[in-house]
Amino acid sequence: MFRSVRHMIYDLIEWRSQILSGTLPQDELKELKKKVTAKIDYGNRILDLDLVVRDEDGNILDPEQTSTISLFRAHEIASKQVEERLQEEKSQKQNIDINRQAKFAATPSFALFVNLKNVVCKIGEDAEVLMSLYDPLESKFISENYLVRWSSCGLPKDIDRLHNLRAVFTDLGSKDLKREKISFVCQIVRVGRMELRDNNTRKLTSGLRRPFGVAGNCA
Protein backbone atom coordinates (compact mmCIF):
# COMPACT_ATOMS: atom_id res chain seq x y z
CA MET A 1 0.00 0.00 0.00
CA PHE A 2 2.79 2.42 0.91
CA ARG A 3 4.65 1.77 -2.34
CA SER A 4 1.46 2.24 -4.38
CA VAL A 5 0.62 5.57 -2.72
CA ARG A 6 4.22 6.76 -3.01
CA HIS A 7 4.22 6.00 -6.72
CA MET A 8 0.95 7.92 -7.19
CA ILE A 9 2.31 10.91 -5.24
CA TYR A 10 5.39 11.02 -7.47
CA ASP A 11 3.12 11.00 -10.54
CA LEU A 12 0.99 13.84 -9.12
CA ILE A 13 4.07 15.94 -8.34
CA GLU A 14 5.34 15.52 -11.89
CA TRP A 15 1.95 16.32 -13.45
CA ARG A 16 1.53 19.37 -11.19
CA SER A 17 4.88 20.69 -12.43
CA GLN A 18 3.71 20.28 -16.02
CA ILE A 19 0.45 22.14 -15.30
CA LEU A 20 2.21 25.02 -13.53
CA SER A 21 4.77 25.35 -16.32
CA GLY A 22 2.13 26.94 -18.57
CA THR A 23 3.64 25.40 -21.69
CA LEU A 24 0.94 22.81 -22.42
CA PRO A 25 -1.69 23.40 -25.13
CA GLN A 26 -5.29 23.68 -23.94
CA ASP A 27 -6.33 20.23 -25.14
CA GLU A 28 -3.31 18.54 -23.47
CA LEU A 29 -3.84 20.60 -20.31
CA LYS A 30 -7.46 19.48 -20.13
CA GLU A 31 -6.53 15.82 -20.57
CA LEU A 32 -3.79 16.10 -17.96
CA LYS A 33 -6.21 17.62 -15.43
CA LYS A 34 -8.60 14.72 -15.99
CA LYS A 35 -5.70 12.36 -15.49
CA VAL A 36 -4.78 14.07 -12.22
CA THR A 37 -8.31 14.00 -10.82
CA ALA A 38 -8.71 10.34 -11.82
CA LYS A 39 -5.49 9.50 -10.00
CA ILE A 40 -6.63 11.40 -6.89
CA ASP A 41 -10.02 9.68 -6.87
CA TYR A 42 -8.36 6.30 -7.30
CA GLY A 43 -5.96 7.01 -4.43
CA ASN A 44 -8.81 8.08 -2.17
CA ARG A 45 -10.64 4.84 -3.01
CA ILE A 46 -7.82 2.46 -2.12
CA LEU A 47 -7.21 4.47 1.08
CA ASP A 48 -10.92 4.22 1.99
CA LEU A 49 -11.32 8.00 1.93
CA ASP A 50 -14.37 9.97 0.80
CA LEU A 51 -15.07 10.16 -2.90
CA VAL A 52 -14.95 13.69 -4.28
CA VAL A 53 -17.74 14.40 -6.77
CA ARG A 54 -16.59 16.33 -9.85
CA ASP A 55 -17.97 17.62 -13.11
CA GLU A 56 -16.82 16.60 -16.60
CA ASP A 57 -13.85 18.96 -16.43
CA GLY A 58 -12.68 17.54 -13.10
CA ASN A 59 -13.81 20.49 -11.00
CA ILE A 60 -15.33 19.78 -7.57
CA LEU A 61 -19.08 20.24 -7.57
CA ASP A 62 -20.47 22.80 -5.14
CA PRO A 63 -23.38 21.24 -3.21
CA GLU A 64 -24.83 24.73 -2.65
CA GLN A 65 -25.22 25.25 -6.39
CA THR A 66 -25.85 21.67 -7.54
CA SER A 67 -29.09 19.78 -7.12
CA THR A 68 -29.27 16.62 -5.06
CA ILE A 69 -30.13 14.51 -8.09
CA SER A 70 -27.18 15.90 -10.05
CA LEU A 71 -24.86 15.20 -7.13
CA PHE A 72 -26.18 11.66 -6.86
CA ARG A 73 -25.72 10.96 -10.58
CA ALA A 74 -22.23 12.47 -10.56
CA HIS A 75 -21.38 10.33 -7.53
CA GLU A 76 -22.62 7.20 -9.34
CA ILE A 77 -20.54 7.99 -12.41
CA ALA A 78 -17.41 8.67 -10.32
CA SER A 79 -17.89 5.47 -8.29
CA LYS A 80 -18.34 3.45 -11.48
CA GLN A 81 -15.16 4.88 -13.01
CA VAL A 82 -13.10 4.12 -9.92
CA GLU A 83 -14.49 0.58 -9.69
CA GLU A 84 -13.69 -0.01 -13.37
CA ARG A 85 -10.14 1.16 -12.71
CA LEU A 86 -9.84 -1.22 -9.76
CA GLN A 87 -11.18 -4.14 -11.78
CA GLU A 88 -8.85 -3.30 -14.65
CA GLU A 89 -5.79 -3.30 -12.40
CA LYS A 90 -6.97 -6.50 -10.71
CA SER A 91 -7.40 -8.15 -14.10
CA GLN A 92 -3.94 -7.01 -15.21
CA LYS A 93 -2.41 -8.40 -12.04
CA GLN A 94 -4.19 -11.72 -12.52
CA ASN A 95 -2.96 -11.91 -16.13
CA ILE A 96 0.58 -11.24 -14.98
CA ASP A 97 0.30 -13.96 -12.33
CA ILE A 98 -1.14 -16.41 -14.86
CA ASN A 99 1.66 -15.67 -17.34
CA ARG A 100 4.25 -16.15 -14.62
CA GLN A 101 2.71 -19.45 -13.56
CA ALA A 102 2.49 -20.62 -17.17
CA LYS A 103 6.10 -19.70 -17.78
CA PHE A 104 7.09 -21.36 -14.52
CA ALA A 105 5.19 -24.55 -15.38
CA ALA A 106 6.53 -24.61 -18.94
CA THR A 107 10.10 -24.70 -17.72
CA PRO A 108 10.98 -28.41 -17.67
CA SER A 109 13.81 -28.29 -15.16
CA PHE A 110 16.21 -26.09 -13.25
CA ALA A 111 19.85 -26.47 -12.37
CA LEU A 112 22.11 -25.68 -9.42
CA PHE A 113 25.80 -25.02 -10.14
CA VAL A 114 28.34 -25.98 -7.45
CA ASN A 115 32.02 -25.11 -7.51
CA LEU A 116 34.14 -26.80 -4.81
CA LYS A 117 37.11 -24.61 -3.91
CA ASN A 118 38.65 -26.46 -0.98
CA VAL A 119 37.97 -28.86 1.89
CA VAL A 120 39.27 -27.38 5.14
CA CYS A 121 38.97 -30.35 7.47
CA LYS A 122 41.74 -32.15 9.38
CA ILE A 123 41.05 -35.77 8.53
CA GLY A 124 44.43 -37.48 8.60
CA GLU A 125 43.54 -39.99 5.89
CA ASP A 126 41.95 -40.13 2.50
CA ALA A 127 38.31 -39.12 2.37
CA GLU A 128 35.26 -38.94 0.18
CA VAL A 129 33.28 -35.69 0.00
CA LEU A 130 29.65 -36.16 -1.01
CA MET A 131 27.38 -33.23 -1.80
CA SER A 132 23.64 -33.49 -2.36
CA LEU A 133 20.29 -31.74 -1.93
CA TYR A 134 18.03 -32.68 0.98
CA ASP A 135 14.44 -31.91 1.97
CA PRO A 136 14.42 -31.51 5.79
CA LEU A 137 10.61 -31.56 5.99
CA GLU A 138 10.27 -34.86 4.15
CA SER A 139 13.56 -36.18 5.60
CA LYS A 140 14.88 -37.43 2.29
CA PHE A 141 17.49 -36.61 -0.33
CA ILE A 142 16.12 -35.20 -3.58
CA SER A 143 19.23 -35.50 -5.73
CA GLU A 144 22.12 -37.80 -6.43
CA ASN A 145 25.50 -37.33 -4.76
CA TYR A 146 28.36 -35.37 -6.25
CA LEU A 147 31.45 -37.29 -5.16
CA VAL A 148 34.96 -35.88 -4.78
CA ARG A 149 37.78 -38.10 -3.56
CA TRP A 150 40.12 -36.15 -1.26
CA SER A 151 43.63 -37.27 -0.33
CA SER A 152 45.30 -37.10 3.08
CA CYS A 153 47.61 -34.41 1.65
CA GLY A 154 44.72 -31.95 1.40
CA LEU A 155 44.34 -32.17 -2.39
CA PRO A 156 41.98 -33.98 -4.75
CA LYS A 157 42.95 -37.56 -5.50
CA ASP A 158 42.66 -36.72 -9.17
CA ILE A 159 45.19 -33.88 -9.27
CA ASP A 160 44.17 -32.98 -12.81
CA ARG A 161 40.84 -31.74 -11.43
CA LEU A 162 42.46 -29.25 -9.07
CA HIS A 163 40.58 -25.90 -9.26
CA ASN A 164 38.10 -27.60 -11.56
CA LEU A 165 35.75 -29.37 -9.15
CA ARG A 166 32.38 -28.35 -10.57
CA ALA A 167 29.01 -30.02 -10.67
CA VAL A 168 25.52 -29.16 -11.89
CA PHE A 169 22.43 -30.57 -10.18
CA THR A 170 20.08 -30.83 -13.14
CA ASP A 171 17.26 -32.91 -11.62
CA LEU A 172 15.36 -29.95 -10.16
CA GLY A 173 11.82 -29.47 -11.40
CA SER A 174 8.96 -27.13 -10.59
CA LYS A 175 7.92 -29.35 -7.69
CA ASP A 176 11.34 -29.01 -6.09
CA LEU A 177 11.31 -25.21 -6.31
CA LYS A 178 7.95 -25.16 -4.52
CA ARG A 179 9.40 -26.98 -1.52
CA GLU A 180 9.36 -24.92 1.66
CA LYS A 181 12.99 -25.73 2.46
CA ILE A 182 15.91 -27.30 0.59
CA SER A 183 19.24 -28.02 2.28
CA PHE A 184 22.59 -28.40 0.59
CA VAL A 185 24.31 -31.20 2.53
CA CYS A 186 28.00 -32.10 2.50
CA GLN A 187 29.05 -35.46 3.95
CA ILE A 188 32.64 -36.50 4.65
CA VAL A 189 33.54 -40.16 4.78
CA ARG A 190 36.99 -41.18 6.04
CA VAL A 191 38.62 -43.97 4.03
CA GLY A 192 41.41 -45.89 5.78
CA ARG A 193 42.01 -47.64 9.11
CA MET A 194 39.37 -48.53 11.65
CA GLU A 195 41.05 -46.29 14.21
CA LEU A 196 43.35 -43.39 13.37
CA ARG A 197 45.59 -44.16 16.35
CA ASP A 198 45.88 -47.85 15.46
CA ASN A 199 49.67 -48.39 15.07
CA ASN A 200 49.60 -52.14 15.61
CA THR A 201 50.69 -53.66 12.31
CA ARG A 202 48.87 -56.92 13.11
CA LYS A 203 45.57 -55.13 13.44
CA LEU A 204 46.26 -52.55 10.75
CA THR A 205 43.38 -52.25 8.31
CA SER A 206 42.88 -50.13 5.21
CA GLY A 207 40.15 -49.06 2.83
CA LEU A 208 37.41 -48.94 5.46
CA ARG A 209 34.76 -46.23 4.98
CA ARG A 210 33.82 -44.51 8.23
CA PRO A 211 31.49 -41.47 8.68
CA PHE A 212 33.56 -38.46 9.69
CA GLY A 213 31.40 -35.33 9.46
CA VAL A 214 28.40 -33.64 7.92
CA ALA A 215 27.31 -30.05 7.34
CA GLY A 216 24.38 -28.37 5.66
CA ASN A 217 23.06 -25.03 4.54
CA CYS A 218 19.30 -24.49 4.33
CA ALA A 219 17.71 -22.24 1.67
From TrEMBL:
Transmembrane regions: none
Entry keyword NADP: no
InterPro entries documented for this protein: DOCK, DOCK_N, DOCK_N_sub1
Lineage: superkingdom: Eukaryota
A GO cellular-component term linked to this record: cytoplasm
One BP annotation, GO: small GTPase-mediated signal transduction
Domain (Dedicator of cytokinesis N-terminal): residue spans on this chain: 2-205
GO molecular function: guanyl-nucleotide exchange factor activity; small GTPase binding
Keywords per UniProt: Coiled coil
PANTHER family: DEDICATOR OF CYTOKINESIS, DEDICATOR OF CYTOKINESIS PROTEIN 1
Protein name per its UniProtKB record: DOCK1 protein
